[in-house]
Amino acid sequence: MSSQTVEEQISPEQIRHEVARRRNMAIISHPDAGKSTLTEKLLLYGGAIQQAGSVRARRAQRGVVSDSMKIEQERGISITSAVMTFEYDEKRINITDCPGHADFGEDTYRTLAAVDNAIMLIDAAKGLEPQTKKLFEICRMRKLPTFTFVNKLDRPAMNPFEICDQIEAQFELPCYPVVWPIGDGDRFKGVYERATRSVHLFERGERGKKAEEVHVIPFNDDSVAELLGDELHAQLLEDVEILDTMGNEYDYDLIMAGELTPMFFGSAMSNFGVELFLKMFLEMGRCPPAKKSNTGLVDPDAKLFTGQVFKLQANMDPKHRDRLAFVRVFSGVFEKGMKVSNARIPGKSIALTRPQSLFAADRYTVETAFAGDVIGLNNPGVFAIGDTLCGDSSKKLSYPGIPSFSPELFAYIKNPNPSAYKNFRKGLNQLLDEGAVQMLRAKGDQGNEDPIMAAVGQLQFEVVQRRLKDEYNVDSKLEPMGYNVARWVTGPGDPWEALEGCGRLFNVFYAKDQWGRPVCLFKNEWSLNAVIQDHPNLEVAPWSFAP
Ligand code: G4P
Protein backbone atom coordinates (compact mmCIF):
# COMPACT_ATOMS: atom_id res chain seq x y z
CA MET A 1 0.00 0.00 0.00
CA SER A 2 1.27 3.47 -0.77
CA SER A 3 2.32 5.57 2.22
CA GLN A 4 1.34 8.73 0.37
CA THR A 5 -1.45 10.79 1.85
CA VAL A 6 -4.53 11.40 -0.26
CA GLU A 7 -3.35 14.98 -0.57
CA GLU A 8 -0.07 13.82 -2.13
CA GLN A 9 -1.79 11.40 -4.47
CA ILE A 10 -4.08 14.01 -5.97
CA SER A 11 -2.56 15.83 -8.90
CA PRO A 12 -2.90 19.57 -9.52
CA GLU A 13 -5.09 18.74 -12.56
CA GLN A 14 -7.43 16.73 -10.37
CA ILE A 15 -7.70 19.57 -7.87
CA ARG A 16 -8.46 22.02 -10.68
CA HIS A 17 -11.06 19.65 -12.07
CA GLU A 18 -12.72 19.19 -8.67
CA VAL A 19 -12.85 22.92 -8.00
CA ALA A 20 -14.17 23.74 -11.47
CA ARG A 21 -17.09 21.35 -11.09
CA ARG A 22 -18.22 22.76 -7.74
CA ARG A 23 -21.04 25.25 -7.32
CA ASN A 24 -22.56 26.29 -4.08
CA MET A 25 -25.56 28.35 -3.21
CA ALA A 26 -27.74 29.56 -0.40
CA ILE A 27 -31.43 30.07 -1.03
CA ILE A 28 -32.76 33.19 0.60
CA SER A 29 -36.47 33.82 0.83
CA HIS A 30 -39.36 34.80 2.98
CA PRO A 31 -41.05 31.91 4.83
CA ASP A 32 -43.60 30.14 2.66
CA ALA A 33 -42.14 31.27 -0.65
CA GLY A 34 -41.34 27.59 -1.30
CA LYS A 35 -37.70 27.17 -0.26
CA SER A 36 -38.15 23.65 1.11
CA THR A 37 -40.10 22.65 -1.97
CA LEU A 38 -37.48 24.05 -4.34
CA THR A 39 -34.62 22.49 -2.36
CA GLU A 40 -36.37 19.16 -2.48
CA LYS A 41 -36.89 19.33 -6.23
CA LEU A 42 -33.24 20.26 -6.79
CA LEU A 43 -32.15 17.30 -4.67
CA LEU A 44 -34.43 15.04 -6.69
CA TYR A 45 -32.59 15.93 -9.87
CA GLY A 46 -29.37 14.83 -8.25
CA GLY A 47 -30.93 11.63 -6.99
CA ALA A 48 -29.95 12.76 -3.48
CA ILE A 49 -33.40 11.88 -2.25
CA GLN A 50 -35.58 9.27 -3.78
CA GLN A 51 -38.99 10.61 -3.39
CA ALA A 52 -40.35 14.10 -3.56
CA GLY A 53 -42.00 15.24 -0.43
CA SER A 54 -39.28 13.81 1.70
CA VAL A 55 -37.63 17.08 2.73
CA ARG A 56 -40.92 18.48 3.89
CA ALA A 57 -42.34 15.20 5.12
CA ARG A 58 -39.26 14.33 7.10
CA ARG A 59 -39.17 17.82 8.46
CA ALA A 60 -42.67 17.30 9.76
CA GLN A 61 -41.91 13.85 11.17
CA ARG A 62 -38.61 14.31 12.92
CA GLY A 63 -37.24 17.58 11.72
CA VAL A 64 -34.53 15.80 9.86
CA VAL A 65 -33.44 17.54 6.76
CA SER A 66 -33.59 21.27 7.00
CA ASP A 67 -34.66 21.64 10.58
CA SER A 68 -33.19 19.82 13.47
CA MET A 69 -34.66 21.17 16.64
CA LYS A 70 -37.90 21.04 18.50
CA ILE A 71 -38.70 24.70 18.26
CA GLU A 72 -38.27 24.52 14.51
CA GLN A 73 -40.63 21.60 14.18
CA GLU A 74 -43.28 23.29 16.25
CA ARG A 75 -43.10 26.52 14.36
CA GLY A 76 -42.35 25.00 11.00
CA ILE A 77 -39.31 27.14 10.49
CA SER A 78 -35.74 26.45 9.67
CA ILE A 79 -33.31 27.84 12.21
CA THR A 80 -30.06 26.02 11.74
CA SER A 81 -28.32 25.83 8.43
CA ALA A 82 -27.77 22.35 7.15
CA VAL A 83 -25.74 21.68 4.04
CA MET A 84 -27.01 19.45 1.28
CA THR A 85 -24.86 18.08 -1.49
CA PHE A 86 -25.77 16.42 -4.75
CA GLU A 87 -24.31 15.67 -8.15
CA TYR A 88 -25.91 16.66 -11.42
CA ASP A 89 -24.46 16.68 -14.91
CA GLU A 90 -20.99 15.95 -13.53
CA LYS A 91 -21.15 18.98 -11.26
CA ARG A 92 -21.19 18.89 -7.50
CA ILE A 93 -23.69 21.24 -5.93
CA ASN A 94 -23.74 22.29 -2.29
CA ILE A 95 -26.89 23.94 -1.01
CA THR A 96 -26.46 25.65 2.31
CA ASP A 97 -29.85 26.05 3.86
CA CYS A 98 -30.42 29.53 5.26
CA PRO A 99 -32.95 30.25 7.97
CA GLY A 100 -35.59 32.45 6.42
CA HIS A 101 -37.63 33.51 9.39
CA ALA A 102 -38.11 37.24 9.67
CA ASP A 103 -36.86 37.20 13.22
CA PHE A 104 -33.72 35.23 12.70
CA GLY A 105 -30.55 36.81 11.59
CA GLU A 106 -26.98 36.07 12.60
CA ASP A 107 -26.86 32.56 11.30
CA THR A 108 -28.19 33.49 7.93
CA TYR A 109 -25.66 36.25 7.57
CA ARG A 110 -22.80 33.92 8.38
CA THR A 111 -24.10 31.33 5.95
CA LEU A 112 -23.96 33.96 3.26
CA ALA A 113 -20.28 34.45 4.12
CA ALA A 114 -19.65 30.80 3.24
CA VAL A 115 -21.32 30.57 -0.17
CA ASP A 116 -20.40 31.82 -3.63
CA ASN A 117 -23.92 32.33 -5.03
CA ALA A 118 -27.28 33.34 -3.63
CA ILE A 119 -30.68 32.33 -4.95
CA MET A 120 -33.40 34.82 -4.15
CA LEU A 121 -36.70 33.00 -4.12
CA ILE A 122 -39.82 35.11 -4.54
CA ASP A 123 -43.48 34.19 -4.28
CA ALA A 124 -44.98 35.43 -7.56
CA ALA A 125 -48.18 36.54 -5.85
CA LYS A 126 -46.44 38.50 -3.12
CA GLY A 127 -43.41 40.01 -4.82
CA LEU A 128 -40.62 41.31 -2.64
CA GLU A 129 -41.09 40.85 1.07
CA PRO A 130 -39.29 42.77 3.80
CA GLN A 131 -37.02 39.98 5.04
CA THR A 132 -35.70 39.34 1.57
CA LYS A 133 -34.43 42.89 1.52
CA LYS A 134 -32.29 42.51 4.64
CA LEU A 135 -30.77 39.34 3.26
CA PHE A 136 -30.24 40.86 -0.11
CA GLU A 137 -28.25 43.71 1.45
CA ILE A 138 -25.80 41.14 2.76
CA CYS A 139 -25.48 39.60 -0.71
CA ARG A 140 -24.78 43.03 -2.09
CA MET A 141 -22.19 43.78 0.58
CA ARG A 142 -20.49 40.50 -0.27
CA LYS A 143 -20.89 41.06 -4.02
CA LEU A 144 -22.52 37.65 -4.32
CA PRO A 145 -23.87 36.70 -7.73
CA THR A 146 -27.60 36.59 -7.05
CA PHE A 147 -30.06 34.55 -9.09
CA THR A 148 -33.78 35.14 -8.77
CA PHE A 149 -36.39 32.39 -8.99
CA VAL A 150 -39.99 33.62 -9.06
CA ASN A 151 -42.08 30.74 -7.76
CA LYS A 152 -45.74 29.64 -7.75
CA LEU A 153 -46.62 30.75 -11.28
CA ASP A 154 -49.30 28.03 -11.21
CA ARG A 155 -51.19 30.41 -8.93
CA PRO A 156 -52.44 33.92 -9.76
CA ALA A 157 -49.30 36.06 -9.89
CA MET A 158 -48.25 39.69 -10.09
CA ASN A 159 -47.33 41.05 -13.49
CA PRO A 160 -43.72 39.89 -14.09
CA PHE A 161 -42.67 43.38 -15.18
CA GLU A 162 -43.92 44.65 -11.85
CA ILE A 163 -41.75 42.11 -10.02
CA CYS A 164 -38.72 43.25 -12.05
CA ASP A 165 -39.55 46.87 -11.26
CA GLN A 166 -39.74 46.08 -7.55
CA ILE A 167 -36.32 44.43 -7.58
CA GLU A 168 -34.83 47.28 -9.56
CA ALA A 169 -36.44 50.02 -7.45
CA GLN A 170 -36.15 48.54 -3.97
CA PHE A 171 -32.87 46.65 -4.28
CA GLU A 172 -31.34 48.80 -7.00
CA LEU A 173 -30.57 45.52 -8.73
CA PRO A 174 -31.14 45.41 -12.49
CA CYS A 175 -32.78 42.19 -13.72
CA TYR A 176 -32.03 40.03 -16.70
CA PRO A 177 -34.92 37.60 -17.30
CA VAL A 178 -33.40 34.40 -18.70
CA VAL A 179 -36.89 33.02 -19.11
CA TRP A 180 -40.25 34.80 -19.17
CA PRO A 181 -43.56 33.41 -17.91
CA ILE A 182 -46.49 32.80 -20.21
CA GLY A 183 -49.67 33.45 -18.24
CA ASP A 184 -50.20 32.58 -14.59
CA GLY A 185 -52.59 30.64 -12.35
CA ASP A 186 -55.03 28.50 -14.33
CA ARG A 187 -53.73 30.07 -17.49
CA PHE A 188 -50.05 29.33 -16.81
CA LYS A 189 -48.74 27.84 -20.06
CA GLY A 190 -45.01 27.71 -19.42
CA VAL A 191 -41.98 29.89 -20.01
CA TYR A 192 -40.23 31.44 -22.96
CA GLU A 193 -36.47 30.89 -23.00
CA ARG A 194 -34.83 33.96 -24.45
CA ALA A 195 -31.44 32.51 -25.44
CA THR A 196 -32.93 29.76 -27.61
CA ARG A 197 -36.15 31.61 -28.52
CA SER A 198 -38.18 28.59 -27.53
CA VAL A 199 -41.26 27.89 -25.49
CA HIS A 200 -41.22 25.36 -22.63
CA LEU A 201 -44.74 24.14 -22.19
CA PHE A 202 -46.17 23.52 -18.76
CA GLU A 203 -48.26 20.48 -18.12
CA ARG A 204 -49.93 20.08 -14.83
CA GLY A 205 -48.35 16.94 -13.51
CA GLU A 206 -48.67 14.92 -10.45
CA ARG A 207 -47.24 17.03 -7.68
CA GLY A 208 -43.92 15.80 -6.42
CA LYS A 209 -43.16 13.59 -9.39
CA LYS A 210 -39.54 13.58 -10.53
CA ALA A 211 -38.72 15.51 -13.68
CA GLU A 212 -41.73 16.28 -15.80
CA GLU A 213 -41.41 15.67 -19.50
CA VAL A 214 -41.14 19.20 -20.75
CA HIS A 215 -42.14 19.96 -24.32
CA VAL A 216 -39.92 22.55 -25.91
CA ILE A 217 -40.84 24.11 -29.22
CA PRO A 218 -39.33 26.96 -31.23
CA PHE A 219 -41.19 30.21 -30.68
CA ASN A 220 -41.72 30.68 -34.42
CA ASP A 221 -43.27 27.24 -34.80
CA ASP A 222 -46.75 27.37 -36.35
CA SER A 223 -48.28 25.48 -33.46
CA VAL A 224 -47.28 28.04 -30.80
CA ALA A 225 -50.18 30.46 -31.35
CA GLU A 226 -52.68 27.66 -31.12
CA LEU A 227 -51.06 26.09 -28.06
CA LEU A 228 -50.94 29.35 -26.14
CA GLY A 229 -54.20 30.82 -27.38
CA ASP A 230 -54.41 34.12 -29.24
CA GLU A 231 -54.44 36.35 -26.20
CA LEU A 232 -51.41 34.87 -24.44
CA HIS A 233 -49.55 34.57 -27.72
CA ALA A 234 -50.07 38.25 -28.49
CA GLN A 235 -49.09 39.16 -24.95
CA LEU A 236 -45.89 37.12 -25.19
CA LEU A 237 -44.96 38.74 -28.52
CA GLU A 238 -45.38 42.13 -26.93
CA ASP A 239 -43.46 41.18 -23.76
CA VAL A 240 -40.56 39.71 -25.72
CA GLU A 241 -40.36 42.85 -27.82
CA ILE A 242 -40.24 45.01 -24.68
CA LEU A 243 -37.56 42.78 -23.11
CA ASP A 244 -35.42 42.75 -26.24
CA THR A 245 -35.64 46.45 -26.95
CA MET A 246 -35.91 48.02 -23.52
CA GLY A 247 -34.62 45.40 -21.12
CA ASN A 248 -31.12 45.12 -19.69
CA GLU A 249 -28.50 43.38 -21.74
CA TYR A 250 -26.93 40.13 -20.63
CA ASP A 251 -23.60 40.93 -18.98
CA TYR A 252 -21.71 38.08 -17.35
CA ASP A 253 -19.30 40.37 -15.47
CA LEU A 254 -22.16 42.28 -13.90
CA ILE A 255 -23.76 38.99 -12.84
CA MET A 256 -20.50 37.87 -11.25
CA ALA A 257 -20.26 41.20 -9.41
CA GLY A 258 -23.79 40.78 -8.06
CA GLU A 259 -24.95 43.79 -10.05
CA LEU A 260 -27.35 42.06 -12.44
CA THR A 261 -29.67 39.25 -11.44
CA PRO A 262 -30.57 36.50 -13.90
CA MET A 263 -34.28 35.82 -13.43
CA PHE A 264 -36.22 32.59 -13.71
CA PHE A 265 -39.91 31.83 -13.38
CA GLY A 266 -41.57 28.55 -12.55
CA SER A 267 -43.44 26.43 -10.08
CA ALA A 268 -41.37 24.42 -7.64
CA MET A 269 -44.36 22.44 -6.48
CA SER A 270 -45.24 21.27 -9.99
CA ASN A 271 -41.55 20.89 -10.72
CA PHE A 272 -41.75 23.26 -13.65
CA GLY A 273 -38.79 25.46 -14.54
CA VAL A 274 -36.61 23.87 -11.85
CA GLU A 275 -34.39 21.79 -14.11
CA LEU A 276 -33.98 24.63 -16.57
CA PHE A 277 -32.96 26.85 -13.68
CA LEU A 278 -30.51 24.24 -12.40
CA LYS A 279 -28.88 23.85 -15.82
CA MET A 280 -28.51 27.59 -16.29
CA PHE A 281 -27.24 28.02 -12.76
CA LEU A 282 -24.54 25.44 -13.37
CA GLU A 283 -23.54 27.33 -16.49
CA MET A 284 -23.63 30.82 -15.05
CA GLY A 285 -23.03 30.33 -11.32
CA ARG A 286 -19.70 31.25 -9.83
CA CYS A 287 -17.24 28.44 -9.06
CA PRO A 288 -15.24 28.73 -5.86
CA PRO A 289 -13.18 31.92 -6.35
CA ALA A 290 -9.78 32.97 -5.00
CA LYS A 291 -10.04 34.26 -1.45
CA LYS A 292 -8.38 37.30 0.10
CA SER A 293 -6.13 36.57 3.05
CA ASN A 294 -3.55 38.48 5.09
CA THR A 295 -0.89 37.09 2.75
CA GLY A 296 -2.65 37.90 -0.53
CA LEU A 297 -5.12 36.01 -2.70
CA VAL A 298 -5.36 32.25 -2.11
CA ASP A 299 -6.20 30.20 -5.19
CA PRO A 300 -8.94 27.61 -4.72
CA ASP A 301 -6.90 25.05 -6.62
CA ALA A 302 -3.70 25.66 -4.67
CA LYS A 303 -2.47 22.47 -3.01
CA LEU A 304 -2.48 23.84 0.52
CA PHE A 305 -5.65 23.19 2.47
CA THR A 306 -7.27 26.29 3.98
CA GLY A 307 -10.75 26.85 5.33
CA GLN A 308 -12.74 29.02 7.69
CA VAL A 309 -15.19 28.21 10.46
CA PHE A 310 -18.46 29.99 9.73
CA LYS A 311 -20.87 28.32 12.09
CA LEU A 312 -20.81 26.44 15.37
CA GLN A 313 -23.53 24.30 16.70
CA ALA A 314 -23.99 22.33 19.89
CA ASN A 315 -26.17 19.30 20.46
CA MET A 316 -27.25 18.65 16.88
CA ASP A 317 -27.75 15.13 18.03
CA PRO A 318 -29.11 15.41 21.58
CA LYS A 319 -28.14 11.79 22.26
CA HIS A 320 -24.46 12.58 21.84
CA ARG A 321 -24.23 16.14 23.16
CA ASP A 322 -21.76 16.95 20.48
CA ARG A 323 -20.49 20.23 19.25
CA LEU A 324 -19.79 20.82 15.60
CA ALA A 325 -17.86 23.47 13.74
CA PHE A 326 -18.83 24.01 10.09
CA VAL A 327 -15.89 24.82 7.88
CA ARG A 328 -15.98 26.23 4.39
CA VAL A 329 -13.02 24.93 2.41
CA PHE A 330 -11.32 27.71 0.45
CA SER A 331 -8.35 25.90 -1.07
CA GLY A 332 -6.46 22.67 -1.44
CA VAL A 333 -7.33 19.14 -0.48
CA PHE A 334 -8.92 18.35 2.82
CA GLU A 335 -8.17 14.84 3.95
CA LYS A 336 -9.63 12.90 6.82
CA GLY A 337 -7.21 12.72 9.74
CA MET A 338 -5.05 15.59 8.53
CA LYS A 339 -3.48 18.02 10.98
CA VAL A 340 -4.24 21.69 10.71
CA SER A 341 -3.28 24.86 12.49
CA ASN A 342 -5.74 27.44 13.74
CA ALA A 343 -4.48 30.96 13.08
CA ARG A 344 -6.00 32.13 16.39
CA ILE A 345 -4.06 29.57 18.48
CA PRO A 346 -0.49 29.61 17.12
CA GLY A 347 1.67 26.58 17.79
CA LYS A 348 -1.20 24.14 18.30
CA SER A 349 -1.81 21.43 15.76
CA ILE A 350 -5.28 19.89 15.56
CA ALA A 351 -5.99 16.47 14.04
CA LEU A 352 -9.28 16.40 12.14
CA THR A 353 -10.21 12.82 12.80
CA ARG A 354 -13.95 12.64 12.35
CA PRO A 355 -14.93 15.10 9.66
CA GLN A 356 -18.54 14.85 8.67
CA SER A 357 -20.66 15.79 5.80
CA LEU A 358 -24.14 16.65 6.86
CA PHE A 359 -27.28 15.89 5.08
CA ALA A 360 -28.89 17.54 8.06
CA ALA A 361 -29.12 14.81 10.65
CA ASP A 362 -27.84 12.09 8.33
CA ARG A 363 -24.08 12.25 8.58
CA TYR A 364 -21.41 10.51 6.69
CA THR A 365 -17.70 10.70 7.05
CA VAL A 366 -15.84 12.84 4.56
CA GLU A 367 -12.64 11.39 3.14
CA THR A 368 -11.64 14.33 1.00
CA ALA A 369 -13.04 17.77 0.31
CA PHE A 370 -12.12 20.62 -2.01
CA ALA A 371 -12.68 24.36 -2.27
CA GLY A 372 -16.38 25.09 -2.23
CA ASP A 373 -17.27 22.21 0.10
CA VAL A 374 -18.49 22.46 3.67
CA ILE A 375 -17.41 19.99 6.32
CA GLY A 376 -18.56 19.51 9.89
CA LEU A 377 -15.83 19.00 12.48
CA ASN A 378 -16.17 17.86 16.04
CA ASN A 379 -15.41 20.84 18.16
CA PRO A 380 -13.99 20.13 21.58
CA GLY A 381 -13.93 23.89 22.18
CA VAL A 382 -11.00 24.69 19.88
CA PHE A 383 -12.87 26.43 17.09
CA ALA A 384 -14.55 29.82 17.08
CA ILE A 385 -16.50 31.57 14.34
CA GLY A 386 -14.14 33.14 11.83
CA ASP A 387 -11.16 30.87 12.66
CA THR A 388 -8.86 30.14 9.74
CA LEU A 389 -7.61 26.54 9.46
CA CYS A 390 -4.52 25.80 7.43
CA GLY A 391 -2.71 22.62 6.45
CA ASP A 392 0.73 24.19 7.02
CA SER A 393 1.32 25.84 10.37
CA SER A 394 4.41 27.67 9.13
CA LYS A 395 2.24 29.78 6.80
CA LYS A 396 0.60 32.16 9.36
CA LEU A 397 -2.28 32.59 6.96
CA SER A 398 -5.59 34.02 8.05
CA TYR A 399 -8.78 35.14 6.37
CA PRO A 400 -10.68 38.29 7.37
CA GLY A 401 -13.15 37.64 10.18
CA ILE A 402 -16.86 37.15 9.63
CA PRO A 403 -18.78 40.18 10.84
CA SER A 404 -21.36 39.98 13.56
CA PHE A 405 -24.41 41.91 12.60
CA SER A 406 -25.83 44.90 14.33
CA PRO A 407 -28.17 43.68 17.04
CA GLU A 408 -31.40 45.58 17.55
CA LEU A 409 -32.77 43.97 20.71
CA PHE A 410 -31.08 43.87 24.09
CA ALA A 411 -32.14 42.07 27.25
CA TYR A 412 -30.54 40.99 30.51
CA ILE A 413 -30.73 37.23 30.87
CA LYS A 414 -31.25 36.14 34.47
CA ASN A 415 -31.08 32.86 36.29
CA PRO A 416 -34.15 32.61 38.54
CA ASN A 417 -32.91 29.51 40.34
CA PRO A 418 -29.59 29.98 42.22
CA SER A 419 -29.00 26.25 42.66
CA ALA A 420 -28.86 25.84 38.86
CA TYR A 421 -26.17 28.48 38.55
CA LYS A 422 -23.45 26.18 37.19
CA ASN A 423 -25.60 24.65 34.46
CA PHE A 424 -27.05 28.04 33.57
CA ARG A 425 -23.57 29.44 32.99
CA LYS A 426 -22.41 26.38 31.09
CA GLY A 427 -25.42 26.35 28.79
CA LEU A 428 -25.29 30.07 28.21
CA ASN A 429 -21.58 30.00 27.44
CA GLN A 430 -21.95 27.20 24.93
CA LEU A 431 -24.86 28.84 23.15
CA LEU A 432 -23.03 32.13 23.09
CA ASP A 433 -19.96 30.35 21.73
CA GLU A 434 -22.07 29.17 18.86
CA GLY A 435 -22.94 32.77 18.17
CA ALA A 436 -26.66 32.07 18.50
CA VAL A 437 -26.79 35.57 20.00
CA GLN A 438 -24.13 38.04 20.97
CA MET A 439 -23.34 38.69 24.60
CA LEU A 440 -22.49 42.08 26.02
CA ARG A 441 -21.79 43.22 29.55
CA ALA A 442 -22.22 46.57 31.23
CA LYS A 443 -18.97 48.54 31.07
CA GLY A 444 -18.03 48.12 34.73
CA ASP A 445 -19.22 44.51 35.10
CA GLN A 446 -16.46 42.20 36.29
CA GLY A 447 -18.44 39.09 35.36
CA ASN A 448 -20.78 38.92 38.33
CA GLU A 449 -23.70 40.91 36.90
CA ASP A 450 -26.34 39.55 34.54
CA PRO A 451 -25.09 39.32 30.95
CA ILE A 452 -26.86 41.23 28.21
CA MET A 453 -28.07 39.23 25.23
CA ALA A 454 -28.03 41.15 21.99
CA ALA A 455 -30.05 39.80 19.08
CA VAL A 456 -31.14 40.69 15.60
CA GLY A 457 -34.64 39.32 16.21
CA GLN A 458 -36.90 38.24 19.06
CA LEU A 459 -36.80 34.63 17.94
CA GLN A 460 -33.09 34.42 18.79
CA PHE A 461 -33.96 35.07 22.44
CA GLU A 462 -36.66 32.44 22.37
CA VAL A 463 -34.30 29.91 20.84
CA VAL A 464 -31.67 30.52 23.51
CA GLN A 465 -34.21 30.25 26.34
CA ARG A 466 -35.76 27.17 24.87
CA ARG A 467 -32.44 25.46 24.30
CA LEU A 468 -31.29 26.30 27.84
CA LYS A 469 -34.39 24.49 29.01
CA ASP A 470 -34.25 21.52 26.62
CA GLU A 471 -30.52 20.90 26.54
CA TYR A 472 -29.33 22.10 29.97
CA ASN A 473 -32.56 21.84 31.95
CA VAL A 474 -32.39 25.39 33.29
CA ASP A 475 -34.95 28.18 33.38
CA SER A 476 -34.11 31.74 32.47
CA LYS A 477 -35.78 35.13 32.62
CA LEU A 478 -35.40 38.01 30.23
CA GLU A 479 -35.48 41.65 31.20
CA PRO A 480 -35.66 43.76 28.04
CA MET A 481 -33.64 46.97 27.91
CA GLY A 482 -35.04 50.05 26.22
CA TYR A 483 -32.26 50.31 23.63
CA ASN A 484 -32.53 49.50 19.93
CA VAL A 485 -29.32 50.51 18.20
CA ALA A 486 -25.74 49.38 18.84
CA ARG A 487 -22.49 50.94 17.65
CA TRP A 488 -18.98 49.60 18.16
CA VAL A 489 -16.42 52.33 18.78
CA THR A 490 -13.71 51.94 16.14
CA GLY A 491 -10.97 54.10 14.67
CA PRO A 492 -7.27 54.22 15.42
CA GLY A 493 -6.00 54.20 19.01
CA ASP A 494 -7.65 52.93 22.16
CA PRO A 495 -11.43 52.95 21.59
CA TRP A 496 -12.17 53.38 25.31
CA GLU A 497 -10.01 56.52 25.39
CA ALA A 498 -11.77 57.81 22.27
CA LEU A 499 -15.10 57.26 23.98
CA GLU A 500 -14.06 58.85 27.24
CA GLY A 501 -12.68 61.82 25.32
CA CYS A 502 -16.27 62.66 24.34
CA GLY A 503 -17.37 63.18 27.94
CA ARG A 504 -20.57 61.61 29.22
CA LEU A 505 -22.89 60.87 26.30
CA PHE A 506 -26.53 61.58 26.98
CA ASN A 507 -28.93 58.62 26.97
CA VAL A 508 -26.23 56.14 25.93
CA PHE A 509 -25.62 52.81 27.66
CA TYR A 510 -21.93 51.84 27.79
CA ALA A 511 -21.38 48.14 27.22
CA LYS A 512 -18.47 45.92 26.21
CA ASP A 513 -18.49 42.95 23.88
CA GLN A 514 -16.99 39.53 24.64
CA TRP A 515 -13.54 40.85 23.77
CA GLY A 516 -13.91 43.86 26.07
CA ARG A 517 -14.37 46.37 23.26
CA PRO A 518 -16.71 49.33 23.79
CA VAL A 519 -20.22 49.16 22.36
CA CYS A 520 -22.64 52.06 22.78
CA LEU A 521 -26.35 51.33 22.99
CA PHE A 522 -28.76 54.01 21.84
CA LYS A 523 -32.50 54.27 22.37
CA ASN A 524 -33.10 54.89 18.67
CA GLU A 525 -31.56 56.17 15.44
CA TRP A 526 -32.42 59.73 16.38
CA SER A 527 -30.40 59.51 19.56
CA LEU A 528 -27.49 57.96 17.64
CA ASN A 529 -27.57 60.73 15.05
CA ALA A 530 -27.58 63.40 17.76
CA VAL A 531 -24.42 61.90 19.32
CA ILE A 532 -22.69 61.59 15.94
CA GLN A 533 -23.47 65.22 15.14
CA ASP A 534 -22.11 66.41 18.46
CA HIS A 535 -18.96 64.26 18.23
CA PRO A 536 -17.88 64.13 14.59
CA ASN A 537 -14.53 62.61 15.57
CA LEU A 538 -16.03 59.60 17.27
CA GLU A 539 -15.74 56.69 14.82
CA VAL A 540 -18.39 54.01 15.17
CA ALA A 541 -19.53 50.97 13.17
CA PRO A 542 -22.77 48.97 13.27
CA TRP A 543 -20.95 45.65 13.50
CA SER A 544 -17.66 44.20 14.51
CA PHE A 545 -15.24 41.54 13.37
CA ALA A 546 -13.92 38.99 15.83
CA PRO A 547 -10.36 40.12 16.61
P1 G4P B 1 -40.69 27.58 2.77
O1 G4P B 1 -39.73 26.44 2.95
O2 G4P B 1 -40.16 28.69 1.95
O3 G4P B 1 -41.33 28.06 4.01
O4 G4P B 1 -41.91 27.04 1.87
P2 G4P B 1 -42.43 25.58 1.56
O5 G4P B 1 -41.58 24.91 0.57
O6 G4P B 1 -42.72 24.89 2.84
O7 G4P B 1 -43.79 25.95 0.83
C1 G4P B 1 -44.81 26.72 1.44
C2 G4P B 1 -46.15 26.39 0.83
O8 G4P B 1 -46.14 26.79 -0.54
C3 G4P B 1 -46.47 24.90 0.84
O9 G4P B 1 -47.87 24.77 0.96
C4 G4P B 1 -46.05 24.47 -0.55
O10 G4P B 1 -46.69 23.30 -1.01
C5 G4P B 1 -46.45 25.68 -1.36
N1 G4P B 1 -45.71 25.79 -2.61
C6 G4P B 1 -44.36 25.73 -2.82
N2 G4P B 1 -44.07 25.88 -4.13
C7 G4P B 1 -45.24 26.06 -4.75
C8 G4P B 1 -45.60 26.27 -6.13
O11 G4P B 1 -44.79 26.32 -7.02
N3 G4P B 1 -46.94 26.43 -6.38
C9 G4P B 1 -47.89 26.38 -5.40
N4 G4P B 1 -49.14 26.54 -5.76
N5 G4P B 1 -47.58 26.17 -4.12
C10 G4P B 1 -46.28 26.02 -3.79
P3 G4P B 1 -48.58 24.33 2.30
O12 G4P B 1 -50.03 24.46 2.05
O13 G4P B 1 -47.98 25.09 3.44
O14 G4P B 1 -48.14 22.85 2.52
P4 G4P B 1 -48.62 21.56 1.72
O15 G4P B 1 -50.01 21.32 2.16
O16 G4P B 1 -48.53 21.86 0.28
O17 G4P B 1 -47.66 20.52 2.15
From TrEMBL:
InterPro entries: EF-G-like_DII, EFG_III/V, G_TR_CS, P-loop_NTPase, PrfC, RF3_C, RF3_dom_3_sf, Small_GTP-bd. Signal peptide: none annotated. Keywords: Cytoplasm, GTP-binding, Nucleotide-binding, Protein biosynthesis. GO terms for molecular function: GTP binding; GTPase activity; translation release factor activity, codon nonspecific. It is found in: Cytoplasm. SUPFAM superfamilies: EF-G C-terminal domain-like (SSF54980), P-loop containing nucleoside triphosphate hydrolases (SSF52540), Translation proteins (SSF50447). Belongs to the TRAFAC class translation factor GTPase superfamily. Classic translation factor GTPase family. PrfC subfamily. It holds the Pfam family RF3_C. It comes from the Eukaryota. The keyword Cytoplasm applies. GO terms for cellular component: cytosol. Its main location: cytoplasm. It comes from Chondrus crispus (Carrageen Irish moss). This is Peptide chain release factor RF3 (GTP-binding subunit), Rhodoplastic. Residues 20-290 form the Tr-type G domain.
